[in-house]
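Can't paste images in this forum, so I'm doing it all in text. The chain is below; anyone willing to post the predicted structure tokens underneath?
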Amino acid sequence: MFGPGVSFNDEIYPPLLRCEAPDVDAVEWAARHRPAIDGLLLTHGAVVLRDFGVADADAFEAVASSLVTTLYGDYGDLPHEKDADRVYKSTPYPAQQSILFHHESSHMPQWPSRQFFCCIQPSSKGGATPIVDGRKVWEALPDELRGRFETLGIRYVRNFIPGLDVGWEQMFGTGDRDEVEERCSAQGVECEWLPDGVLRTVQNAPAVVQHPRTGEQVFFNQLFLHHTACLEPSVREVMRSLFGDDETAYPRSASFGDGSPIDDDTVDLLRSLYDSLAQRFPWQRGDVAIIDNMLVSHGRDPFEGERKIIVAMGDMVSRAALT
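Text version of the structure:
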């Protein structure tokens, strides 16, 4: 199925494709087997390539490019890897904390259908990239919650406060306020300049979508990265001391699409559900993990020691094209 010199194991998760021959050209092999890899992703949501000799950003970009039509180079939420226009560093976040589950850019008007991760340096302890299938989340939600999320969606409010979140200049790749306003307007995002020069954006997005290839319903959002209940308790207290009880003044917040609150108990229930469904694999140097960003969410476990995972994404999907 995947040619001589490459073994396939789907008895583990994610399924593993391992190169066992020294003469396999990773880029040529990936391009030739792209349809089969796409098929694995539609079934499993993720797959790992191991021992294909992917040792740096250039090799990673070449392999990722062979598996999508277009890699995306204008993502403002992640810093670029040095000298790589379409490869990013992973989220700069304290090593002792988890990055909670999310589908990349699912709150935005467009998002990547494919996301790639490459392990340059595995951590000495921890640091896994846990994965959760959004189809299973949707199936497991209580009926009342499914109805509310499906009907109302989620409203995301973001304040680009220097020192507390990425600046709006980095996010939008420009220092021109008029350009920012034009781009927000074109994407159906409300934007407002606060008196201190902070940009506030407000946008409603579905909490559940239908996958364009499989037709399945998927719980697809960034609730955990925006809801204030997901902040560390000490950080939430600091936010409260700075901004009072108005959570829309926090760097990030989320509610139902009609503005009604998503209570902390609901968020706790969802986090417990995700934790129960999460699957992990140990990173090895040179691993390339590929995910269908619409089918599965990902996070990051706390870790010790040096860890370097680089990221690429491609074949963007527009929300407008789905509706």
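The chain has a mean pLDDT of 95. The first helix runs from residue 26 to 32.
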